[in-house]
Design goal:
This protein is an alpha/beta fold and 343 residues long. The chain is built from twelve helices and 14 strands.
Length: 343
Amino acid sequence: MSASGAEGQALHAVPEVATEKQTIAQAVRDAMLEEMERDERVIVLGEDVGVDGGVFRATDGLIERFGAERVIDTPLAESAIIGMSVGLAATGFRPIAEIQFMGFVYPAINQLFAHAARMRNRTRGTLSCPMVVRMPYGGGIHPPEHHSESYEALFLNTPGFKVVVPSNPYDAKGLLISAIRDDDPVLFMEPKRVYRAFREAVPAEAYTVPLGRAAVAREGTDVTLIAWGAMVRVCLDASEVLAREDINAEVVDLRTLNPLDRETIISSVVKTGRAVVVHEAPRTGGFGAEISAQIHEHAMLQLEAPVQRVAGFDVVFPLAHNEKLYLPSRDRIVKAVEKVLAF
């Protein structure tokens, strides 16, 4: 019986090169540093990204290395941050814009939806918009209101964006480098719940993890657990509990929500015959509904039970003392798996 899901354990084979044990936050910083050294068109901008090194210290030391012309502390104005980034991207730069928390992005929605996402289409390919918007997202750190949102569905319903969500340090560095080099706008959602929750070996040199390709974080035969970001760790935890009940769960880490790696999802579900989708966002209209629809459209005859969703509830994300009641937990995932197995 496979058992590769222990907290802090690497989810993949790291190449035989010089490595360093890093957290997700450190891997994100290294990706930006290496790309800024490689390409002078890459700049970083956002609130407190320079002198203070970012609210989560993901840009720590960059202003000392590259100066205030390439690491820009902006006013508290998300619309201006994204508007400047769109203009910079359209004129040859590759900006990395930081929105301190996903719940702060709302003032910038018009710039993102009406301009960044449409630039290539509007100019019939004359201009592209090679920019990255980094956004810490999700719950688990007990912050005040507007700090724990997980509204990826807003951007997944807007053509023109790529949406990337790493779950571990290795992928965080490789995916961010791929995102910076991409010629279209990429929303890079960073699961702050696990920013520093564990370390794993990360190559010291630059490398890429391709966008649009999921990873099987744990092999299994009885049920497929599909998740992204911090929920991958929770699914791996649940898989260990299930293993003690002689239930072998496969865990698929989507890594990129758009473009979606449907092939890996369907291949896994065809093998196991059952699926549970896990995400932090509210259940209604969440991306889990789209994944469920894709599975039923492309693998319905191989299903042994309807797809189950374990998600946040259809309420505003609660304050700190109710976070654990809202967020998908190991026990909720285990119960969903038991339900599909008993169908």
